[in-house]
Specification:
Residues 1-12 have a biased composition (Polar residues). Pfam families: ABC_tran. Keywords: ATP-binding, Nucleotide-binding, Translocase, Transport. The chain is α/β, with parallel strands linked by helices. It contains ten helices and ten strands. The protein has helices at 72-78, 109-115, 130-140, 148-158, 162-165, 178-191, 208-221, 234-240, 268-273, 278-284, and strands at residues 32-43, 46-57, 61-65, 89-97, 100-101, 116-119, 196-200, 226-230, 243-251, 258-267. A six-stranded mixed β-sheet has the order 6-7-8-3-9-10, with helices on both faces. It has a four-stranded antiparallel β-sheet with strand order 2-1-4-5, with helices on one face. Strand 1 and strand 2 (46-57) form a beta hairpin. Helix 3 runs parallel beside helix 6, helix 4 crosses helix 6 and helix 6 runs parallel beside helix 7 (208-221). The chain starts with 31 loop residues before the first strand and ends in a 5-residue tail after the last helix. 44% of the residues are buried. It binds adenosine-5'-triphosphate (ATP) and magnesium ion. The site of adenosine-5'-triphosphate has 11 residues, from helix 1.
């Protein structure tokens, strides 16, 4: 893909840094790195997601929330062409990354997935050592790496795991706790130097302490990356996200099929304190979903 924009982590400009407490003072959307327009996602004839427009800003965390089955995972996977790997899945509309449609002819999906990485609900270490898990991506993508040891250390440090594993890098990754495995998977994603990290309920298999560590980590990662997170935990969205998109499933008039639609997208504080749509209000107040 052509790199037309300066990558945020290498930008010499000091970037504003927003903490959770500043949710209400964010600038308007203006710093878009990734976005989708008129996005429909189908599984065969079934349209799982309908006409979604969203913009994701550099160095922000955006949360996708909504009831089960409203298409959050489907949408998330369409943002880095992960749906290509699912039989029958088809995307219509555009997903723009740095001004380029990732579904355009000639775009390499492997390169898309390197630059827009993904962390899954359940930690999925490879049956390899911790070191080899982190080095795997750089090796298979043929990244030019001056020192793999340094890259492994840097990635594990950024994922807040280095101090816990530095003396057992050659031990199997399966020996780590669930929370450590998830941070290792984040380190593995970071190692190939993506711009965006997509996270699909990354804390749902973790206890509250491991969850807090991941949330703290997300705040640190926001300095270098743009993050999109799916979460069922509304407190989590309120704690970590700069912006929140609320989805629901509604019945299509013609077929009666339930399809996912974007109801409201705004700064997180607005969504939780001053929702504009009754459906958002009902959901966040626990009356639905
Ligand atoms: N591989 C697939 N093949 C066919 N239909 C699918 C597939 N994956 C998801 N769907 C359907 O698409 C719709 C959206 O599913 P999706 O998993 O994206 O929802 P979700 O919002 O992530 O739900 P949850 O909160 O339960 O994870 C659902 O109706 C689901 O049954
Ligand atoms: Mg899901």
């Amino acid at each position: 893909m052509s790199d037309t924009t300066t990558q945020s982590s290498s930008s010499p400009e000091p970037r504003p840094h927003f903490h959770a407490a500043n949710h209400g003072n964010l600038p308007p959307v203006s710093n878009q790195l990734l976005g989708c327009e008129d996005l429909d996602v189908y599984y065969g004839a079934f349209r799982a997601v309908t006409e979604v427009d969203l913009e994701f800003n550099r160095n922000e965390i955006t949360a996708l929330i909504g009831p089960s089955g409203c298409g959050k995972s489907t949408l998330l996977r369409s943002l880095n062409r992960m749906n290509d790997l699912i039989d029958g899945a088809r995307v219509e509309g555009t997903v723009n990354f740095m001004g380029q449609n990732i579904y355009a002819k000639g775009v390499d999906p492997i390169e898309v997935r390197r630059r827009i990485g993904m962390v899954f609900q359940k930690p999925n270490p490879f049956p390899k050592s911790i070191y080899d898990n982190i080095a795997y991506g750089p090796r298979v993508t043929g990244m030019s790496v001056s020192s793999m040891d340094d890259l492994v250390e840097e990635s594990l440090t950024k994922a807040a795991l280095w101090s816990e594993v530095k003396d057992k890098l050659k031990a199997p990754a399966f020996g780590l706790s669930g929370g450590q495995q998830q941070r290792m998977c984040i380190a593995r994603t970071i190692a190939v130097k993506p711009e965006v990290i997509l996270m699909d309920e990354p804390c749902s298999a973790l206890d509250p302490i491991a969850t807090m560590r991941i949330e703290d980590l997300m705040h640190e990662l926001r300095e270098d990356f743009t993050i999109v997170i799916v979460t069922h935990n509304m407190q989590q969205a309120a704690r970590v996200a700069d912006r929140t998109a609320f989805f629901t499933a509604h019945a299509e008039e013609t077929t009666g099929n339930r399809t996912g639609v974007l109801v409201e997208f705004d700064r997180t504080a607005e969504i939780f304190e001053n929702p504009k749509d009754k459906r958002t209000e009902d959901y966040i107040s626990g009356r639905f979903g």
